[in-house]
Design a protein that fits this description.
single chain; mainly alpha; 3 helices; elongated
Length: 92
């Protein structure tokens, strides 16, 4: 698995999603990243374990965990919640 340079990452995820997950988590505040990474791993593992067809496990787990992560980031990212200020224009 690639090295994510100390980034908070879920304990289980598909390597194909690593950079995307890192990018999504970076949109959250530092306090939320660990909690959300843990929740991502839980959803991924539970979904994997509940899929009885072995060749469908990874796809279903990725879909469920990634969908939840995307929705959470859309709702709670610091950029969309107004916690960041617009940059000043030259002359302001």
């Amino acid at each position: 698995m690639p090295d994510y340079h100390g980034a908070v990452m879920p304990s289980v995820f598909s390597g194909a999603d690593g950079e995307w997950i890192k990018s999504m988590l970076s949109e959250l505040g530092p306090a939320a990243r660990g909690k959300i990474a843990t929740r991502y791993a839980e959803v991924y593992q539970v979904t994997w374990d509940s899929e009885p067809v072995s060749f469908k496990q990874e796809n279903k787990a990725r879909h469920e965990a990634n969908t939840r992560l995307r929705e959470f980031v859309r709702k709670y990212s610091s950029a969309s919640s107004g916690l960041t200020a617009k940059p000043k224009l030259i002359g302001e």
